[in-house]
Structure of Poly [ADP-ribose] polymerase:
Amino acid sequence: MTDSVEYQFVKSKFLGDKGDKTFRNKRQGGVVQFLLQNAGGAGNFVPEIVEIAKIYNPIVYSKFEGECQRMIEKNMSSTDPAFRPLKSNEMFRFLFHGTQQTDPQLIYNSEDGLDLRFARDGLMGRGIYFAEDSAYSHDYSHYIQDLNLHQMFFAVVNIGRYKPYPQPDQTLKMPPLLEGSKTRRYDSCYNKGAKHFIIYDNSKQYPGYLITYRNALEK
């Protein structure tokens, strides 16, 4: 799979087009931190991909596919003059998500994938957070201590028509109402400062790939 277009797409998004994206070392102190500082890395490292695994979960994908169809019908045929119809490539993004202490296997084998019921309150309320930058999600990555490995998802997310927020709003429990509407809402929210999207509905995401990687100095 490493030579496939699909693999190279995920790799380039994860490492950057030049392959030189750096992550912050999560574990401060000790020999690793000493080596990083003396190598001029200032506590950063270039990640080394160990595996990119494609996730197959028909139940979760079926829910996601159904929601995608609903969003296409809702947003591509908008008759409201205040909101132009969206193109399909505007409604979906590939984004990163770290699961912290939760084993990703428990997520991709579940019936809901990433589950809002287990989400914590964040800068944009209780939602499922996705980052445009893999370096951001690294700070929330799942760490396998025995193997010195990190993991994060590269998910496809149905952002639909999103509401940008220049400042965080911790009171959010769902996207806000569309301007001038008493019933219709935005589909997701976007934190402009942190550059991440937030959804408040499980069916708007599919954890398509699990990226396993390591810090080369921690082999």
